[in-house]
Amino acid sequence: MSDPRYWVGFSLIRGIGAARIRRLLEQFGSLQDAWGASMSGLRGAGLSRNLAEQVVYQRDRLDLNAELARLDQIGVQALTWDSPDYPSLLREVYNPPPVLYVRGEITPEDSLSVALVGTRGPSVHGKEAARRLAHDLAENGITVVSGLALGIDGIAHRAALDAGGRTLAVLACGLDQVYPARHRELATRLMAQGALISDYALGVKPEARNFPPRNRIISGLSLGTVVVEAGIKSGALITLRFAIEQGRETFAVPGNIQSRASMGTNQAIQRGHAKLVTCVQDILQELNISMIQEQRDARQVLPETADERALWEHVSDEPTHIDELVRASGLPTEKVSATLALMELKGLVRSVERMSYIRSHS
Predict the structure, then answer these.
(1) Which of 131, 150, 205 is nearest to 173 (CA)?
(2) Which of 55, 239, 330, 348 could crosslink 343 through cysteines, CB 3.0-4.6 Å?
(3) Torsion-angle region of residue 46: left (phi > 0), alpha (psi -120 to 50) or beta?
């Protein structure tokens, strides 16, 4: 395997991407030789004068041993095209990242991965769909891939972790920082059951232009991409387009036709850009993946008392407000509130928002 120092060195120079790395390897045989090449040699490899000058300028100022020490200090591994642990699915796409920074661990089982992405401001429907799909994917041994963003991404990561599964988060910045900052605790938890991943070197800030390339890695790491909720101009649809270009399966969860958050997903389904998804079986069947984990033997929890059964009849997959449950069941408000609290402890129902409840499926 070639010396990773020079791969890391070139990753620190803006403008040196996969295509130029290939040209440098073709011209010099190794990145170590390319690192020490003359201006004319770099120009001969197709670099512009400005970029060749930047390489010469940077290499005289960079301490590559110190850069690797920085990575090691915070537990970051640099995987290159030469690394045997470089993700096999990502290796298959056109011009994959020459260097992939990993904090945590990518394992062979992550070759069975599905991306789950969507809006940063999901509805109750979107939150529940994301939670259920990610949970069920994880229960079936599928690694959930997303971007650690607010909204659907964060919900997907948490649901996979809660199910005891694995999850990978692709960041649009260096791994010495977490974006958004409010997901630091989630990122720490995630590294124990998966990995934070980026193709950006330490110190790179989460600039807007970094996110589309990040989305390309999300889809590239995955057998298929599922969009839960997305507006017409959502970044999640960029991930979907990358998945199509990469020849991967694409899915979308249908939503309320009057909701702006579902306009992009509904349109993707309508135009044949994504297959409609209503449950995890739709994804597993399309990907030709059998149930990997045996179904749990525990008996299904059912309502036990007359009050629980009365409320159970009026709770569904759509949020139902407690006032409506009082009217429908004919029970006093205090009784309904106490019974719902007990049912939530048993895992029968879940409180969503604004004093509304849905049936729990986990």
Answers:
(1) 205
(2) 348
(3) left
* Same domain, residue pair 30 and 122: no
Distance CA 351, CA 337 (A): 11
Same domain? For 122 and 228 the reply is yes
**Are 194 and 136 in the same domain?**
yes
Instruction: Specify if 142 maps to a domain.
Output: yes
**At what angle are helices 49-59 and 4-11 packed, to 10 degrees?**
120
pLDDT one digit per residue (tens) for the chain, 362 residues:
578 999 999 999 989 999 999 999 999 999 999 999 999 999 999 999 999 999 999 888 999 999 999 999 999 999 999 998 999 999 999 999 999 999 999 998 999 999 999 999 999 999 999 999 999 999 999 999 999 999 999 999 999 999 999 999 999 999 999 999 999 999 999 999 999 999 999 999 999 999 999 999 999 999 999 999 999 988 899 999 999 999 999 999 999 888 888 999 999 999 999 999 999 999 999 998 865 444 433 335 678 788 888 899 888 878 899 999 999 999 999 889 889 888 887 778 888 777 888 887 65
Number of domains in the chain: 3
